[in-house]
Specification:
Elements lengths: L15 H52 L41 E4 L5 E5 L29 E3 L29
Antiparallel strand pairs: 1-2, 2-3
Length: about 180
């Protein structure tokens, strides 16, 4: 069996490989942090687009419910009334499904009229929006708003610029559903 015998020469190793690996780890960490921040911003912008689309759907549905009221025009008591309007011999559907708040994570803040009926919705989130300009004309008053909860989707504003056909169907050229909300 051979034994290792020291030669007596001391070779000094500077640890350059170790420093190189540490430097590489720091650079990779900075790159991953930048990628994470970019992904977060892109994700948030997508959720803002979803909020605008879903809010518009609710505003159009509320307006449709109000305008098609038999007798005295009134808004719904609950959001579920938009799915199945039982005020007619054959039920009408003003909304396809109840969409969650894409920013606030679920429940909407409801705006109610003096009679307690729902006239609009808004996100419950108090985060500062990334989008501050270039809104569709019906939501132009959202410009400069400091919180998502200030973006109020009310029935009176629906169809103001003619983006809806009046029957809940999208206008030619208008997408029916954002890609993130498609089944």
């Amino acid at each position: 069996m051979a034994a290792s015998i020291p030669s007596g020469k001391h070779v000094e190793q500077g640890g350059f490989t170790y420093l190189g690996v540490l430097f590489l780890i720091v650079i990779m960490g900075m790159g991953l942090a930048s990628a994470g921040e970019l992904w977060s911003t892109v994700s948030r912008r997508d959720r803002e687009k979803q909020l605008l689309w879903v809010g518009t759907q609710y505003a159009q549905a509320l307006r449709s419910y109000y305008r098609s009221s038999p007798g005295l025009a009134q808004y719904p008591k609950e959001l579920a009334d938009l799915l199945q309007d039982e005020r007619f011999p054959e039920a009408r559907h003003h909304l396809r499904q109840l969409y969650p708040d894409p920013i606030g994570g679920g429940e909407w803040a409801l705006q109610r009229g003096f009679d307690g009926r729902i006239t609009g919705i808004n996100s419950a989130s108090t985060e500062v929006p990334l989008k501050q300009a270039d809104f569709p004309s019906q939501w132009s008053d959202f410009e400069g708003m400091q919180r998502y909860s200030d973006w109020q989707f009310v029935a009176e504003k629906a169809f103001l610029d003619g983006t809806g056909s009046g029957n809940g169907a999208p206008v030619k050229g208008q997408s029916a559903l954002p890609q993130a909300l498609q089944p």
